[in-house]
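Many introductory courses stop at the sequence. We go one step further.
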Amino acid sequence: MNKFCFIDSSGIIKQDRFFGTGLLIVKNVGDMGDKLSKNSQPAKQKVQQSKNEKIESLLLQSKKDEVIQILRNSTKFEMKFDTVRPSTQMYYERMIDVFLSDKDNRFSAMIIDKHKAGFNEKEIEDTWETYTKYAAMLIVKEMKNLPDDSLCIVVDEISRPQNKPLSLEDTLLSKLRTEVLKDPILDFDSIFGAFSIESHSNFLMQLSDLLLGAVMYDYKKRFDMVSPAMEKKKEILVKKLRDTFKVKTLAQDFTENTHAHFHVFERV
């Protein structure tokens, strides 16, 4: 069966304590995409309305410089973990519901904790190579769980350094081939394509970001790295996942299959 894999990352590998790679695997791409798109429309309208009201208020106060700053900082609308707010939280909760509504859906998160004993700093000297290596490792792990499926890899676009001759897709495929050759059970031909996209253009990539962001939030919270302001914005949404999976925290190795497949693990 053909399935699509949406892979995303969270964290700055050389700067942050935690770095996460998330992999969302979907069979019914069209159906899920339609549901997520319809869900996003009222959220987008609400955000735009709030922005317009703020601009009108500033104009009435003759604060034109602040208006110009808002307009300059405008970005394309996305429903990612960073953009979760209490005012639009219900729409993010519905994104989770869409994921959980199909038992064929799968999400895996691989977390790197740089403070763990045994972590090798030399492993992350090259950000491009590290990003693609971790992505390949997570994909191969899932290939072992889906031996009868063919996978198309969809990766969140990142800028290619000038000293790298291969595209993001070809770099990832090269690393996948290397990993697959280590296991005689796996077949590289089960990967039927790879392409990169900008996350704002695809709701499934945004869903992958949302799920990974929730896991990363709990890892940060576990070590008192979540500010009160962030907790106010994100806690209720993350609690929805905890309650669904009947766990006290997402920051642990666990697998849940009651609804959709959800797996979190740390790589040492």
